[in-house]
Amino acid sequence: MKVDRRSWDSVCRKARLRMLQMYYESGVGDVRGGLSCLDLLLVIHHDALRASDRFVVSESRFVVAYYVTLWTLGKLTDEDLCRFHKDGSRLNQHPLNQEIDHSAVATGGYSSGLDRATGLALAKQMAGKPGRVYCLTSGRQWQTGECWAGLSFAHRKRLENLTVLAVPDERKPMPGGIEGDDVFSLAARFRAFGTHTREIDGCDPRAIRRALRPNGHELPQFILALTPKEGDVSFLEHGPDRAALPLSEVQYRQAVREIEEKCAKLSASRSLMLRAVRNSHS
Predict the structure, then answer these.
(1) Which residues contact 38 (CB under 8 A, 6 or more apart)?
(2) Spatial strand order in the sheet of 162-167
(3) What residues make up the domain containing 92?
(4) Residues 153-195: pLDDT tens digits?
């Protein structure tokens, strides 16, 4: 469902505020994780996904943003979101495809999303079926061998119908993990496997849309999305421990206020740019 620029600003604002409400009311932490991938999810689901496509969330940190994205499309209700992480709810930390029709698989383990996405892409390729498979991963997941095995497999099978998105984070490596899971070191490692890799601003809808276009290569597509570590909220920049905790009432109100202010400034800035473009053509 494509929307105009003014409507898009409204969708992004409502999605951010509703996601903050979910985090606060459920007592689930890691707000930064949701804010870091929300723009990616909104663009993919509103502009890119077709009926024949599949989408895999490989990281549980992103699931709140995923549910909110489905809510903006009318595929989940406000009542569904209010029951997130509660007993008997169909919205869990890992999306269950028997409960959420729009989720390709239940990801389960820490890094199990990419291998399932490559399997879905290979099945489509072998059957000659249309459609693309999208898989959203985090930087920390690429500190496990399972993800690199999936990348190697996707490249070897030349799965051109596969798009993998990685959102690097600021957290410390897992025990025994590799230092430097930032966008630049990940990009270099991806390219060492011979993949077609793009680095983008993960908060810029235009950059995301451009990156999602067919790359013209008979290879899987890898997109690394760089996002600010504070994720639109100033107090989240004070280290991963702060960002991982549930929101207090004071923090929730501060986060809402800051996001309202940033969304208003961004909308005003875009309106000025659009007015300038129109005047230049008049």
Answers:
(1) 12, 15, 16, 19, 65, 68, 69
(2) 54-57, 133-138, 162-167, 221-226, 196-201
(3) 34-229
(4) 999 999 999 999 999 865 444 444 444 445 557 888 888 888 8
Query: In this structure, are residues 139 and 130 in contact, taking their beta carbons and an 8 Å threshold?
Result: no
Which residues contact residue 2 at a Cβ distance below 8 angstroms, ignoring those fewer than 6 apart?
46, 47
Which distant-in-sequence residues (6+ apart) come within 8 Å of 180 by Cβ? none
Phi and psi at 162, nearest 5°, equal -115, 130
| Residue 22 domain-assigned (yes or no) | no
Give the tens place of pLDDT for each residue, 98-150.
667 667 766 655 667 898 899 999 999 999 999 999 999 988 888 888 889 99
CA atoms within 13 A on the CB side of 175: 0
Q: What is the CATH number of the domain that holds 84?
A: 3.40.50.970
Q: What is the dihedral of CA 13, 97, 173, 199, to 10 degrees?
A: -60
Please state, as a whole number, how many other Cβ atoms lie within 10 Å of the Cβ of residue 216: 8
Looking at the chain, how many residues does it have?
A: 282
Examine residue 173 and state whether it is found in any structural domain, yes or no: yes
pLDDT in tens, 38-86: 999 999 999 999 999 999 988 888 999 999 999 999 999 999 999 998 8
Domain count, the chain: 1
